[in-house]
Known about the structure:
Elements: H1 8-16, H2 23-33, H3 37-47, H4 52-73, H5 78-89
Amino acid sequence: xxxxxxxxxxxxxxxxxxxxxxxxxxxxxxxxxxxxxxxxxxxxxxxxxxxxxxxxxxxxxxxxxxxxxxxxxxxxxxxxxxxxxxxxxx
Length: 90
């Protein structure tokens, strides 16, 4: 389960340079539009539909990897990434 970020330069030019969105919203937009997070989360739902504990364990790994990867590629979103991680894992 590898998180991938596509169109990094486009994300920087359009989302990160915008003064319209707050940082948490920029993080959410990048997470949904420029990563494969949604696809991987849906795959977990299907693969582990009858095993909630296993699905939760894999979901926490996905959340961790997503938060780390976005923070690594877009350091300006580190705090937003950390807040999202804490909210999802706790």
